[in-house]
Amino acid sequence: MNYSKLLLAFFIALWITACGQTGPLYLPDGPAPIHVPKELPADIEPDEED
After folding, report:
1. Contacts 24+ apart (CB under 8 A), 33-39
2. What is the pLDDT of residues 1-50, one digit of tens each?
3. Euclidean distance between CA atoms 33 and 23, whole angstroms
4. What is the DSSP code string of 1-50?
């Protein structure tokens, strides 16, 4: 296998693994798939930084 075919195979494999990784995780008008609270609950205090 010459270098051009090897390079082509590498970029095809890279492209296949990159498919779906750059798009949004959810539709812009829809809810996020994982709920992350915007504020901490009242009984949890934020960590203090030194």
Report:
1. none
2. 689 999 999 998 888 777 655 555 566 676 666 666 666 566 666 666 65
3. 14
4. --HHHHHHHHHHHHHHHHTTSSS-SS-TTSPPSS---SS--TT-PPPPP-
User: Residue 45: CA atoms inside 13 Å, Cβ hemisphere, count?
Assistant: 3
Q: Which residue, chain included where needed, has tokens 């030194």?
A: 50
Separation of alpha carbons 50 and 36, rounded Å: 26
